Amino acid sequence: MAKVHDPEEIEELFDEISYGKGASILRMIEAYIGPENFKNGVRQYLEKFRYGNASGHDLWSSLQEASGTDVSRIMEGWISQEGFPVVKASLADGRLTLEQERFLLTGGTSKQTWPIPVTMNVDGKTQSLLLDKKKGEVNLPTTPRSLKLNVDQTGFYVVQYNGKELLDLVWKSGLSPLDRWGLISDAKAFLLSGRTSFKEYIKLVEKYQNGEEYLPAVEVSDQLSFLYQIAPSKLIETSRKFHSTGLRIFDSKKDDNSTTLKGIIAARLALLDDDYAEKAGSKLNDLAKVEPDMKRSVVMGYARSSNDYDGLINRYTKSTTDEERLRYLEGLASFKNPELVEKTLDFALSGKVKRQDVRNVILYATANPNAKTAVWQWFKKNMARLEEMYSGTAQFSIILREYLSIVGVGRLAKVEKFFSEHKVIGADIALERLRIYDQLARNIIATT
Question: What is the model's pTM?
Answer without folding.
Answer: 0.92
